[in-house]
Design brief:
14% strand; 4-stranded mixed sheet; Aspartate Aminotransferase, domain 2; single chain; binds 4'-deoxy-4'-aminopyridoxal-5'-phosphate; 7-stranded mixed sheet; Aspartate Aminotransferase, domain 1; alpha/beta; 409 residues
Length: 409
Amino acid sequence: MAGTSDAALRERARRVIPGGMYGHQRAGLFPENFPQYLSHGEGALIRDVDGREFVDLLCGYGPIVLGYQHPGVEAAAAAQRRQADCQNAPSARMVELAELLVDVVDHADWAYLAKNGTDATTTCLTIARAATGRSVVLVARGSYHGAAPWCTPGLAGVLPSDRAALRYFEYNDHASLRAAVDEAGDDLAGIIVTPFKHNDGEDQELVDPAFARELRQVCDSRNAVLILDDVRCGFRLNFGGSWESLGIQPDLSAWGKAVSNGYTVSAILGIEALRDAATSIFSTGTYWFAAVPMAAAIATINAIRDEDGIAAMERAGELLRSGIVEQARANDLAISYTGPAQMPYFRFLADTDFERMMHFSRVALDHGVYIHPRHNWFVSVAHTDEIVARALAGTEAAFRAVRDRFGDG
Ligand code: PMP
């Protein structure tokens, strides 16, 4: 892509940003035609710095739940910005947002607000340890809980001691959970788990309700803390905690992403019995009290409810799923398409190293659809039937291209 604005920015970035870009936003993880830099987002559409427009099926990795530039959210943020954002102390928006979260999420008796999902998951562990006076936390192998030393998937610079008090189990596997619980012995502080299994590059797996019940029982019988990491799924699957429909309440939950339609707020929600522990810890940040993102979060949560947002996303996701599954069938290509409709993931069964998926993503992008080759996708309320049809026109071309290059199967 020599000669493009994107290429020029990459060249400048190489001089002043480590590796040119870090983390999962590195364009190097995508096919070579993907942009590194984006300039605009509106509804379900994004534009790169060279003016190419795409239907977005990644939604900023989840935050964009109502669509980019949602008028109600932007108006609330703008009104707050005219008053104040970052100050010596929080604004009234903090109390209003905490009240709203406590009202909407069943298990929540209090809310502790932060910035990133990693702040939320890490603070949950700290609260669990403060409450129990114990150290060991159980984590499902391969689950992403953020980029702090205890959970980052990159091990450079991470000390064994950062993870010494973690034990691992396999998601949905009772025997491995019991083994990890036994290993923790009387030092079990808590268990952190995502609402369903959404490990990168793997088929997604809904939680087995019996497994979720066992997690609850283990925590009850050992006086340990059950932490639901709802950072990715929160406000996409349910209007409330993602396990409300199962009737299983965590003791703590971590939230981020969809809470504020792209503004920077995350939250830790907890039960009454953990209020004192949450009061006892010191976890904070310069920007954690900024009022604009909180105003945006209040408007976002109200809009998800008022616009029946969960149902709208489910409908868009179902349309996408049936279209993609039919296109794969028509091209004689075997795929697995997994996860809730709003957060799908698909891969080609014949792929050994994502080679078909990389080609699929490359061609989809050339046909105006931005998808991720190995991370689950997201749809938003702005993914109307017309937008989904546009996305499917791109994926149709991508399926044909995969078949042409790799054959059927
Ligand atoms: N938990 C889960 C389940 C996530 O998906 C993520 C982000 N992808 C995080 C925690 C960390 O959130 P953040 O990137 O905002 O720190």
